[in-house]
Amino acid sequence: MSLAADPVQERSEALLKPHEGGPQSGRRWLLPVMLALISLIWLFPLLLALVNSFRDYAFTAKNGYVSWGGFTLDNYTNAWQQADFGLHFTNSAIITIPAVILTLFLSCCVAFVVARFSYRFNLALLGFFLAANLLPPQALLIPVYRMFRAIEVPLWISDSGTLLNSFVGLILVNMAFQIGFCAFVLSNYMKALPKELYESAVIDGASVTRQFFQITLPLCRPALAALAVLQTTWIYNEFFWATVLLQQGDKFPVTSSLNNLRGQFFTDNNLVAAGSMIVAIPTLVIFFVLQRHFVAGLTLGATKG
User: What is the CATH number of the domain that holds 129?
Assistant: First the structure.
């Protein structure tokens, strides 16, 4: 004995089932193809530089850069020796690591005050820190240079006796331009944290300092990891202020040392490409190590109504 099918249910299933050969089935492949095409266009310069970094310049000069053959590892050896990457990687670490740590810590302090306390100048304080990101660095070149030249520091900080030609000056200027953005991101994230956590902490007698270090910072770990990746990339790749505030070649970060690979009358582009690949390795390593936290930090709050 067979049971009769419900016509209402059959009609609902027919409406929900996509029709074969309809317009939606024809467009189903369009999005993946478009994304793959855009990805190839975006990655083509990088892949071309990667391939040519393993090729001899004489071969590419004869056959063109869009060709195949002439592979060698000499470009990486010559780039490392000619640009003195060992010294300049150390300089970049001295600049980047303290700048990132101090930027994230001070940004957390600003964001905590803005997010957890309500007072008259709450938004004005956040806007003050964010204002540093509104002006291009080139517009502040002359006043920052004159200010750093006028500020005297002990000789153990800078050989020149001022903030010019010192790692401390470069760390400070990077922090000044990055604290506003980090404070803005972290304040929005901290505002989404449940207020019940802080109410319970107050009832238990926890001070503001304890709330900051034992409640807020652990909960902000994904956001801090995402910002750490971004800040490391931005400060590590910073080129403008390093060339302006540093006056000795032995203090330049690794990005500025790429100028050593350029000749006065001739530039081996394959050698420069090899040097660029070497310079990009630390940021790639940091991204892949923190990839899970970086993606989690970017998607936080995406499903909150």
Answer: 1.10.3720.10
| Domain extent for 253 | 84-260
Cβ–Cβ contacts within 10 Å for residue 22, how many?
9
By the 8 A CB rule, do 225 and 297 touch?
A: yes
Q: At what angle do helices 221-236 and 291-299 cross, to 10 degrees?
A: 110
**How many domains, in total, are found in the chain?**
1
pLDDT (tens, 9 = 90+) of the chain, 305 residues, equals: 445 555 556 555 555 555 555 555 556 788 888 988 998 898 888 888 899 899 998 888 888 877 888 889 999 999 998 888 999 999 999 999 999 999 999 999 989 988 888 777 777 777 777 777 777 888 888 999 999 999 888 888 888 888 898 899 999 999 988 998 899 889 888 988 888 889 899 998 889 999 999 999 999 988 898 899 899 999 999 888 988 898 777 889 998 888 878 766 678 888 999 999 999 999 888 888 877 766 665 555 444 44
Taken in order 149, 166, 104, 234, the sign of the CA dihedral is positive
Apex CA 283: angle with CA 277 and CA 284, to 5°? Answer: 70
On whether residue 72 sits in a domain, the answer given is: no
In a domain, 73, yes or no: no
Is residue 289 assigned to a domain?
Answer: no
The pTM score is 0.80
